[in-house]
């Protein structure tokens, strides 16, 4: 009887599994590299905002194409891995998770860029002492969330990811409180209106960065557990940006 030479040998199978593991680790590394660039964007846009540093703000904007390019590379690698390996279960979730997280990070980069673009208009306004502090504090909180959730992704640590997920409520509450504080300044001093509106838009972008950190936390949970978080996402006061600007009756 002629032996069946079409069946893969155990050595070939083992080699294929190891090669796929390398591809998955490389995909995770690329996502972490993208996260490092996004973290730098956030940190730099907050520093530029605080110091009214237009040059640093411009560097934040110019970093955006590099982040977009890395997202495209992650997408290509992920799609190719699915086509070649036809993964299942945890392997498939790792690829899908990487694609989701890369998409969230790309959006975070856009939000940091939006903040940076507010630096130049703010530098032309009167300096309103103390008003920037609330945005700084909010931004630092959102940056910490991004850092923590990326580490949780790297380590597949769902407890750390859930901490970020539960922390979204605090960012929402602080954002709403900041909106109300800025609105009070605007009503008390008309000269501060333009300045405060710029800060409100910055704060809203920061709040959305927090939302994307929460998205990533949900993806980490999905990768590890194989299912979505069933609990309702914790949210603070859902007062919208428009509602915060509306006059009280």
Written overview of the protein:
The chain has 249 residues and is an all-alpha fold. The chain has one domain: Phosphate transport system protein phou homolog 2, domain 2 (Methane Monooxygenase Hydroxylase, Chain G, domain 1, Up-down Bundle), CATH 1.20.58.220. Helix content is 81%, strand content 0%. It is built from 8 helices and no strands. It has helices at residues 10-51, 54-85, 89-116, 119-123, 131-155, 158-188, 193-225, 241-245. The termini are far apart. The model has no long low-confidence stretch (mean pLDDT 88).
Blueprint (SSEs and pairs):
Layout: H1 10-51, H2 54-85, H3 89-116, H4 119-123, H5 131-155, H6 158-188, H7 193-225, H8 241-245
Helix pairs in contact: 1-2, 1-3, 1-5, 2-3, 3-7, 5-6, 5-7, 6-7
In short:
By secondary structure, the chain is mostly helical.
What labels describe this entry?
249 residues; Methane Monooxygenase Hydroxylase, Chain G, domain 1
Q: How large is the share of residues in beta strands?
A: under 5%
* Residue windows where pLDDT falls under 50 for at least 5 positions: none
The overall pLDDT, averaged over residues, is 88
Q: At the third CATH level, what is the topology name? A: Methane Monooxygenase Hydroxylase, Chain G, domain 1
| CATH architectural group | Up-down Bundle
Number of strands: 0
Individual helix count: 8
Tell me the name of the CATH class.
Answer: Mainly Alpha
* CATH superfamily (homologous) name: Phosphate transport system protein phou homolog 2, domain 2
- The string of secondary-structure elements, in order, is HHHHHHHH
Count structural domains: 1
In percent, how helical is the residue content? over 70%
Give the class from helix and strand content and strand pairing.
Answer: mainly alpha
**Gross geometry:** elongated
Question: What is the terminal separation in angstroms?
Answer: 91 Å
**Computed Rg:** 22 Å
Largest sheet: none
């Amino acid at each position: 009887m002629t032996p069946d030479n079409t069946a893969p040998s155990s050595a070939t199978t083992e080699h294929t599994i190891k090669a796929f593991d390398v591809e998955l680790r490389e995909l995770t590394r690329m996502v972490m590299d993208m996260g490092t660039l996004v973290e730098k964007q956030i940190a730099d846009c907050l520093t530029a905002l605080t110091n009214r540093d237009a040059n640093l703000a411009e560097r934040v904007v110019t970093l955006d194409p590099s982040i977009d390019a890395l997202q495209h590379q992650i997408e290509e690698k992920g799609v190719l891995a699915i086509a070649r390996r036809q993964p299942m279960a945890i392997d498939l979730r790792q690829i899908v998770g990487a694609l989701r997280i890369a998409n969230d990070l790309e959006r975070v980069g856009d939000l940091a860029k939006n903040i940076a673009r507010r630096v130049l208009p703010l530098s032309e306004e009167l300096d309103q002492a103390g008003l920037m502090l609330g945005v700084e504090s909010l931004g630092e909180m959102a940056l910490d969330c991004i850092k923590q959730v990326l580490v949780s992704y790297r380590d597949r640590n769902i407890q750390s990811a859930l901490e970020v997920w539960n922390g979204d409520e605090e960012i929402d509450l602080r954002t709403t409180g900041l909106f109300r504080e800025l609105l009070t300044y605007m009503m008390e001093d008309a000269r501060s209106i333009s300045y405060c509106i710029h800060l409100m838009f910055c704060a809203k972008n920061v709040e959305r960065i927090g939302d994307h950190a929460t998205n990533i936390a949900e993806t980490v949970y999905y990768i590890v557990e194989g299912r979505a978080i069933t609990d309702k996402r914790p949210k603070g006061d859902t007062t919208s940006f428009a509602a915060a600007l509306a006059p009280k009756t």
